[in-house]
């Protein structure tokens, strides 16, 4: 999609610190890391949020989770948090589905 930041990272048009690529996903480090490991896993195709992706392509939705687990395992973490923000009210700022993988520090619940 034109003017989508994450579509451009997937396409290699702007740089991303890519840590894993699978058939349908790309994982790269978050520019504004909130944990020692903070990676975003995105589908290669454009969807606005997690629910849109899950409705359109459940297999790729699952692939995001398995890719995130692989990144966590490769980094040596058994404990990690996966987050989808949906909507500006909870902090979504990029409207290309992305799964946040956070690991490497203690985390509280409920989240802020
Ligand atoms: P969210 O707030 O859930 O929409 O998450 C968007 C994340 O994207 C946020 O944590 C910061 C990150 N981000 C924004 N611009 C860039 C960029 O150009 N490159 C990378 N790697 N991450 C970015």
Helix content: 25-40%
What binds here, in terms of ligands, is:
2'-deoxyguanosine-5'-monophosphate
- The total count of strands amounts to 5
Instruction: Estimate the global geometry from the Cα principal axes.
Output: globular
Report the C-alpha radius of gyration, rounded. Answer: 13 Å
Task: Compute the number of helices.
Answer: 3
Give the averaged pLDDT, no decimals: 97
Widest sheet, order of strands: 1-2-3-5-4
Q: Class by helix and strand content?
A: alpha+beta
Q: H/E element string? A: HEEEHHEE
Indicate the proportion of strand residues.
15-25%
Stretches where pLDDT falls below 50 for ≥5 residues?
none
Rounded to the nearest angstrom, the distance between the terminal CA atoms is 31 Å
Give a quick account of the main beta sheet: strands, pairing sense, barrel closure.
5 strands, antiparallel
Task: Compile the SSE list and pairings.
Elements: H1 5-11, E1 18-21, E2 25-29, E3 37-43, H2 50-56, H3 58-74, E4 81-83, E5 99-103
Antiparallel strand pairs: 1-2, 2-3, 3-5, 4-5
Helix pairs in contact: 2-3
2'-deoxyguanosine-5'-monophosphate is lined by residues 5, 16, 28-32, 40, 85, 91-94, 98.
């Amino acid at each position: 999609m034109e003017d989508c930041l994450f579509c451009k990272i997937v396409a290699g048009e702007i740089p991303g610190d890519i840590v894993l690529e699978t058939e349908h996903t790309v994982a790269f480090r978050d520019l504004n890391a909130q944990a020692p490991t903070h990676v975003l896993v995105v589908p290669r195709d454009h969807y606005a949020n997690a629910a849109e992706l899950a409705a359109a392509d459940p297999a790729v939705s699952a692939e995001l989770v398995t890719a995130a687990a692989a990144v966590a395992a490769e980094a040596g973490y058994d404990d990690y948090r996966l987050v989808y923000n949906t909507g500006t009210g909870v902090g979504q700022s990029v409207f290309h589905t992305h799964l946040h993988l956070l690991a490497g520090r203690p985390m509280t619940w409920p989240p802020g």
